[in-house]
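for the recovery benchmark. tokens below, seq after
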């Protein structure tokens, strides 16, 4: 887990969108998505529910974001 990945998940939670978070963090959408996927694999949990209407944190995701 890196500080960069933590910044990304906070930005995703705040904006509710991977695309908006990528723009806010000045990274490409694929780079942000890959960083999120890598973190979820490392922690062996799903941090967000992804849908057409947006991205919302899971219960585990909320716990991590609060810290």
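predicted aa per position
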């Amino acid at each position: 887990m890196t500080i960069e990945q933590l910044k990304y998940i906070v930005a995703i939670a705040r904006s509710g969108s991977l695309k908006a978070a990528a723009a806010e963090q000045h990274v490409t959408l694929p780079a942000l998505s890959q960083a999120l996927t890598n973190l979820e694999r490392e922690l062996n949990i799903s941090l967000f529910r992804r849908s057409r209407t947006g991205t919302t944190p899971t219960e585990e995701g909320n716990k991590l974001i609060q810290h």
